[in-house]
């Protein structure tokens, strides 16, 4: 992990700058959120069902909207993120909304150094694993933080999506599905405000589905299911059209845009 310290620092700086832009964006719609609107999407709500009185650890929570949405549903939540500014705002929102979520600022791979309790649910969603160079320590940490019989759930953009470079007018296939080498990207704006003049500097890694699944199995989790969908809940890729169900997809969608995976921590032998 030490070899990647500089990558993490650059990413942290970018995410700190994103917070100020995202909090004002239409995508995050903080006004409606503060008025009671949930930021959670149908996939995760359907997968996790009733969370009342369950403990939930939210990995890479940004400024905490999903964490606080789970808290509104009765879960006892802890959110983790690398961004100081994100965690600062999450704590402010938690206090403003009179909720009882806790927030910890750290690299997600270091979660077990900062949190020792175990949880009924570990949750992560939409644009998280691409910031990690290796999923084995990530999966090991998830297993450490789950109670026996606990649930891990991830809903994430499909690995095929990250094979493309989106800077030009037409998306160009550029990166390997399982590319091990770090990918550096520098561009103006963010996914929540593409007109922003902020320069995003980002280091990321591509992870195929086999890597996701095998890292979790190796860590002692049992896969309940894996589903892939030709739609995204967010309009963040080129040439997407809104469906009647409120999702986004291309006119002739040839590959999945997201996947979801649910797993259970097995009892020790």
From TrEMBL:
Instruction: Kindly list any coiled-coil regions of this protein.
Output: none
Extract one GO BP annotation from the record.
methylation
GO molecular function terms here? methyltransferase activity
EC category:
transferase
User: Under which EC number(s) is this enzyme classified?
Assistant: 2.1.1.-
Q: Which organism is it from?
A: Winogradskyella bathintestinalis
Q: Where is the Methyltransferase type domain?
A: 58-154
State the name under which the record lists this protein.
Class I SAM-dependent methyltransferase
Task: Tell me the domain of life.
Answer: Bacteria
Against CDD domains, the record matches this protein to: AdoMet_MTases (cd02440)
Q: Could you tell me which InterPro entries the record lists for this protein?
A: Methyltransf_11 (IPR013216), SAM-dependent_MTases_sf (IPR029063)
Alphabetized, the UniProt keywords read: Methyltransferase, Transferase
């Amino acid at each position: 992990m030490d070899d990647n310290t500089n990558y993490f620092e650059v990413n942290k700086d970018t995410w700190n700058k994103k917070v100020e832009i995202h909090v004002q964006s239409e995508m995050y719609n903080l006004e409606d959120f503060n008025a009671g609107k949930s930021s959670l999407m149908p996939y995760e709500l359907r997968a996790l069902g009733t969370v009342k009185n369950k403990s939930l650890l939210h990995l890479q929570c940004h400024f905490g909207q999903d964490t606080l949405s789970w808290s509104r549903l009765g879960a006892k939540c802890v959110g983790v993120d690398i961004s100081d500014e994100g965690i600062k705002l999450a704590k402010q929102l938690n206090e403003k909304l009179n909720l009882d979520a806790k927030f910890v600022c750290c690299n997600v791979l270091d979660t077990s150094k900062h949190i020792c309790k175990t949880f009924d649910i570990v949750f992560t969603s939409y644009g998280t694993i691409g910031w990690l160079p290796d999923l084995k320590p990530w999966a090991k940490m998830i297993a450490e933080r789950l109670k026996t019989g606990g649930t891990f759930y991830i809903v994430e953009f499909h690995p095929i999506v990250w094979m493309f470079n989106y800077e030009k007018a037409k998306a160009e296939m550029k990166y390997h599905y399982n590319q091990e080498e770090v990918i550096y990207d520098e561009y103006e704006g963010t996914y929540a405000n593409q007109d922003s003049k902020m320069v995003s500097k980002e280091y990321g890694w591509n992870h195929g589905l086999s890597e996701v699944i095998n890292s979790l199995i190796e860590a002692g989790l049992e896969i309940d299911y894996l589903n892939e969908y030709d739609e995204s809940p967010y309009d963040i890729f080129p040439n997407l059209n809104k469906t009647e169900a409120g999702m986004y997809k291309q006119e002739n969608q040839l590959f999945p845009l997201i996947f979801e995976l649910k797993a259970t921590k097995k009892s020790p032998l």
